Amino acid sequence: xxxxxxxxxxxxxxxxxxxxxxxxxxxxxxxxxxxxxxxxxxxxxxxxxxxxxxxxxxxxxxxxxxxxxxxxxxxxxxxxxxxxxxxxxxxxxxxxxxxxxxxxxxxxxxxxxxxxxxxxxxxxxxxxxxxxxxxxxxxxxxxxxxxxxxxxxxxxxxxxxxxxxxxxxxx
Length: 171
Known about the structure:
Blueprint: E1 5-10, E2 13-18, E3 22-23, E4 28-37, E5 40-46, H1 53-66, E6 72-80, E7 87-89, E8 94-99, E9 108-114, E10 121-140, E11 146-164
Parallel strand pairs: 3-11
Antiparallel strand pairs: 1-5, 2-4, 4-9, 6-8, 6-10, 7-9, 10-11
């Protein structure tokens, strides 16, 4: 198969907590986390030049498919306490699905529990993600074209900030 185009780029994922990330010590709570994808295309090159009308159709289809370099697929993540926060993460591996450029995921829930005597303050947890994205596509054989895709696996860690409320003091 000829490779008519090479588009370079990738997804750019960020994470944010939905609702109030301010919790009380000793409390078990559910954090709802959403992902956003601000993918980008950084380069575009012509590789092979199509010479027949069928090859031009293959090239046109390939160019369309190449723009998927910004889509993250098979996104999965774990919330982890790698920074000594006074919290236990109860939830395990969660599925986020896929995210096209400009998209946001549905909220995914993670259950956590703050230690009973956790000091008030802001703490950082890590959302550790694994996902794939397409780095190349080839099309051949219009009108009965065949498609070839190549993917890269990426690991990414994103900070999630949570706050322990100060305890109410009763006299």
